[in-house]
């Protein structure tokens, strides 16, 4: 059973009866003989950054294996052989949920203050290192363990040699943390006909164009689509950057306060003939007045987190800290998806855009009569931007017709949508998905 889980912090401890240590500079010796459930009774081990482990729950815990990299395993190699858990108490029941690459259900067993999940047969029943997460199994305790260490047995001869030396084909390793965002690959949607948005864009902190600050009505790009998967418009996704603060302060003054990040959100109200929310449009490049298709997204948009004056100091003072990327940012990425009926055929080259109104900008400005205009943090939509950055190897699907050209409607230029030069290296961040 494979499923995706969020990163869960592991409690890495030293159990008195189990001497499992952390990485050391010297090459560790071979592990001691295994106990009854196939796990070592001691030893010193190093971290393997290719694999991870996590759990959820208290008295009933669900354990997960993370393959952080895709090594294209063949018949389970490279792969996971066993998953050892050391706790300060013995579980009542241990149940395996994982299956190996050959479809065989894994085995679960327990010993005093440790238990394990192991492959049922040879290498073909390993869990291959294919870049996905696998639910390994569950364990039920009378009371929640106060200490725990997870040790992984991997079949990866090249990595074992690099970590420990010698010629061992398998080795025991400590799980590593989830790697930071790569921000130079676009593998999130392999069905995309055009995609300039990198994987983990939520943690990349790209530059962005502000509609309120720059008198913008509409913004996008001209792109050539890969139509090998079809020509019917299914969806469009655009990366937005939210700079607003829900309670008080501003990103530019370093005093941003958002009471409940994730729960504190805003929406964009209707204004004049424009509906509430953000509207995405697809145009034929020969007609930038009448769109081929439009879709409106009214999802609530989160405010950015509060200023973190512990992790973000000096030049980063006032920014919030992203623990995944380890970076301090002024805004938070909000990728929004616009859906279409899937019946509209597109030409091979299109102009995609998004448009929305702010207090003073947009085709139909909202004005200053809303309650948020008098609030300490102002209106969230006045601090909403569209991400724009030319990432390495992007676009990952389709092509940008001209890297230096974006399509924009400036309020100061007669509200006319058209090409605008000087955008290298700031490519508007969008994705278009087509179907048959």
Structure, explained:
This protein has 436 residues and is mostly beta strands. The chain folds into two domains: 129 residues, Immunoglobulin-like, CATH 2.60.40; 244 residues, no CATH class. The protein contains two helices and 28 strands. Strands 1, 4, 6, 7, 8, 10 and 11 form a seven-stranded mixed beta sheet that branches. Strands 14, 17, 18, 23, 25, 26 and 27 form a seven-stranded antiparallel beta sheet that branches. The protein is elongated.
Primary descriptors:
2 helices, disordered N terminus, 2 domains, 436 residues, single chain, 7-stranded mixed beta sheet, Immunoglobulin-like
How does the SSE layout of this entry go?
Layout: E1 47-48, E2 51-56, E3 60-67, E4 79-87, E5 93-96, E6 107-111, E7 114-118, E8 127-128, E9 133-140, E10 148-155, H1 157-164, E11 170-175, E12 192-195, E13 208-210, H2 211-214, E14 216-224, E15 232-242, E16 265-266, E17 278-283, E18 293-297, E19 301-302, E20 320-322, E21 327-329, E22 332-339, E23 349-355, E24 384-387, E25 399-400, E26 405-410, E27 417-421, E28 430-435
Write a brief caption for the model.
By secondary structure, the protein is mostly beta strands. The protein contains two helices and 28 strands. It has two domains: 47-175, Immunoglobulin-like; 192-435, no CATH class.
């Amino acid at each position: 059973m494979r499923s995706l889980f969020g990163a869960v912090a592991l409690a890495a401890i030293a159990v008195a009866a189990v001497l499992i240590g952390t990485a050391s500079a010297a090459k560790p010796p071979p592990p001691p003989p295994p106990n009854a459930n196939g796990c070592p009774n001691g030893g010193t081990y190093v971290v393997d950054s290719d694999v991870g482990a996590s759990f959820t729950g208290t008295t009933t815990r669900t354990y997960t294996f993370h393959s952080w990299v895709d090594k294209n395993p063949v018949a389970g190699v490279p792969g996971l052989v066993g998953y050892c858990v050391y706790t300060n108490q013995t579980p009542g029941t241990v149940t395996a949920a994982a299956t190996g690459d050959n479809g065989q259900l894994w085995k679960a067993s327990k010993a005093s203050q440790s238990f394990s999940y192991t492959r049922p047969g040879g290498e073909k029943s390993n869990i291959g290192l294919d870049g996905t997460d696998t639910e390994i199994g569950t364990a039920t305790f009378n009371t929640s363990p106060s200490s725990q260490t997870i040790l992984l047995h991997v079949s990866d001869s090249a990595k074992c040699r690099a970590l420990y030396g010698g010629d061992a084909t398998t080795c025991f390793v400590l799980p590593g943390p989830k790697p930071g965002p790569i921000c130079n690959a676009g593998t999130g949607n392999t069905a995309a006909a055009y995609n300039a948005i990198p994987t983990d864009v939520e943690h990349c902190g790209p530059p962005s164009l502000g509609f309120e600050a720059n008198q913008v009505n509409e913004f996008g790009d001209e792109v050539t689509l890969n139509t090998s998967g079809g020509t019917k418009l299914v969806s469009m996704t655009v990366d937005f950057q939210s700079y607003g603060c829900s309670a008080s302060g501003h990103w530019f003054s370093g005093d941003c306060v958002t009471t409940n990040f994730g729960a504190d959100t805003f929406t964009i109200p209707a204004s004049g003939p424009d509906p509430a929310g953000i509207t995405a449009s697809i145009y034929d490049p020969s007609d930038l007045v009448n769109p081929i298709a439009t879709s409106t997204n009214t999802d609530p948009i989160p405010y950015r987190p509060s200023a973190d004056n512990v992790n973000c100091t000096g030049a980063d003072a006032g920014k919030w800290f992203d623990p995944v990327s380890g970076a301090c940012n002024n805004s938070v990425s909000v990728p929004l998806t616009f859906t279409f009926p899937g019946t509209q055929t597109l030409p091979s080259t299109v102009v995609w855009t998004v448009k929305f109104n702010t207090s003073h900008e947009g085709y139909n400005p909202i004005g200053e009569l809303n309650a948020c205009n008098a609030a300490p943090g102002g209106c969230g939509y006045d601090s909403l931007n569209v991400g724009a950055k030319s990432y390495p190897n992007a676009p990952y699907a389709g092509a940008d017709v001209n890297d230096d050209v974006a399509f924009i409607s400036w309020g100061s230029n007669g509200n006319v949508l058209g090409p605008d030069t000087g955008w290298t290296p700031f490519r508007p961040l969008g994705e278009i998905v087509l179907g048959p």
